[in-house]
Amino acid sequence: ELKPLGSRFVSLDFTHAATIARGQKSALKLGYGFSFDWYNFMFDHNRVVSKMTSSTNFRPIFDAQGDEVELKKNKLTVSYITLPIVPHVVFSKESAIRMIGLGGYASYRLDSWTKTIEEKSDNLSRIGSNFNLNQVRYGVKAEVALRHVGELFFNYDLSPLFKKGLGPDLTAFSFGIKL
To answer: What does 2-29 look like in DSSP terms, one character per residue?
Structure first.
């Protein structure tokens, strides 16, 4: 099981918006650029992601006595470079909704690793692998800027996280506030 509240998505964006058309109280802009993204999938069980020849599994860790090791922290991190393209409708600064955007993105996986911390001993383990993850991810992105709240984003990956037949059939969804 995934810990939804412990899992995080972090992105460092370098974007620009080019004006396509301008009206009296609104404008159509095209947002583009690139970003570095990190998915941190936190798990609430004592199984770690491991890559086998023909599949990716979640397996327990055993100590020298053959007992299953309890984990304090258990996560899979995947980093990407992403190219978003998001057309925006921008409204006046007095409007409650300042901007609405809907577009897409494509990403290339840069790195991935697991990190575990044992409950009793605090032993830390970090293992890097591709874990049969898809090298490319793509999806849809929505953005809304609200006057008193800030800019909210919603990403939904259309591509599965793992290669077909080599891991669980999962797609990622992330949302939050842009700072």
So the answer is: B-TTT-EEEEEEEEEEEEEEE-SSEEEE
